Amino acid sequence: MKFKTKGLVLKTQDISERDRLVWVLTDSHGILRAFAKGAKNIKSPKCAGTGLLSYASFSIFEGRDSYHIDEADAIEQFIGLRQDIESMSLAQYFCELCLNLCPTGQEAGDYLRLILNSLYFLSNRKRPALQIKVCFEMRLITLCGYMPDLVMCAGCGVYEAPQMVFVPHTGKLYCAACADRLGVQGVLLPAAAVTALRHTVYADFEKLFSFGLKDELLEPLSLASERYVAYMTQKDYPTLQFYKSMHSI
Ligand SMILES: [Zn+2]
Questions:
Q1: Does the pTM of the predicted model rise above 0.70?
Q2: Which domains does the chain have, with CATH numbers?
Q3: Segment holding 136, helix H or strand E
Q4: pLDDT at 47 over 90
């Protein structure tokens, strides 16, 4: 059976001098692992279309136990990412998260839209990298069914306080006074960072990336979101460690 779909290449593996194996996040079938014969021939359109972080239109043949890419026409290559190792390393962390968390064998348009928009902003440097990272992490984990409870302090119910503590292993917020009284450990966030964190979870998708926050508040916010993802998925991400080693230079 043959079908057409659009998708983003999250991972590639060379399997011979001519052929590669690719993992593609598609809108129609979620993550799909497919063989791309002759894809390493640079004269073939399949070469660009099946490269890492290519968003392409695919024509795919579904065999008895494997998928084969017949055609791949690149739509977007995110050139800006390829010129900057820090942005590229963050993009690879996004790919690793998707490989771990996106569905297989079912529609995944919301996941694809999220990573495409994140890569677009990262590639064009339209937003600070850490802001894109927080938006991507919080929205992805929410799509996966792990929505944190950021509405109010879990201790006293207050909506806003000058400082609040986000607890990554429960996804709950506490005002500083309750955190102190209850002995709760977490990431301390000033009110503006709490507002931004709420935005990443509750805003309409069209407005997801549209907020401003001082650079010094992006650091604790980024720590809160990456720890929440790590706790909820029970996994450490080597690509995140690599990005952080780049980011601190
Ligand atoms: Zn409280």
A1: yes
A2: 2-76 (2.40.50.140), 79-148+167-247 (1.20.1440)
A3: helix 129-143
A4: no
